[in-house]
Sequence to fold (225 residues):
Amino acid sequence: GEDVEQSLFLSVREGDSSVINCTYTDSSSTYLYWYKQEPGAGLQLLTYIFSNMDMKQDQRLTVLLNKKDKHLSLRIADTQTGDSAIYFCAVEHGSGNTGKLIFGQGTTLQVKP
Amino acid sequence: NAGVTQTPKFRVLKTGQSMTLLCAQDMNHEYMYWYRQDPGMGLRLIHYSVGEGTTAKGEVPDGYNVSRLKKQNFLLGLESAAPSQTSVYFCASSGTDQETQYFGPGTRLLVL
Fold:
C-alpha cells in the first residue's frame, strides 16, 4: 500500500535553515501537505503543494517537490525556537474524491538557542 | 467559530468497557475523519465520512465503529476497549476543495 517515510529527528541551531525530507510511493497524489504539531496539540496545516508544481514559497517556508523521485521537502529559513515541533508530511491516498491522507511518522525538529 | 472540537479531552477505560468519542465541526464541512496517533507511527486513518449518513473504513478500522447522523458531528465508538487502543485520537474535517484538513485538539485514551 501507500507509504510515506520521514526521518525521525532533526536538530539545528537558531538562525540556521532546517530541511525536512519526505518520500512517498503513490504517484497519483494531487495534493501534498506539511503539518506542524506542537506538544499536546492537534495538527496545524503549514502549507501544501499541488502536484503540478515544483516549488512553493510562503514567507520562511519553501516546499520542493520532485515527482520523478517522489520526494518532498520543507525548508524553514531562519529557524526559531518557536519552530520546535513535530512536522508531518502527508499525501492524498486512493482514487475518488475522499480527501484521505497518508501521514509520515513525523520529524521532530529541535531548535537549539 | 470554534473549528473542530473533541470531547472528552482525556479518558481512562478498563478493558472491555465501551465509550464514544464526539467530534463536532462548525465549518459546514462535508468530509470528516478519525485518526489515531501512536509514537513513531504518525497518524493512521480509522474511519472517514464523505457526507451526512455515509461512513467508510480507513487503514485501521478494526475494533471501532462510527456514525455521521448529523453533518456537523462524527462519532467514534469503541464497543469493547482493549489496551491496544490506548492512543491519542484526532478528528479532522475538510471541505470539498480538499485543500486542508482542520484538526481537533485530540482525545487521549488510556485503556487499562
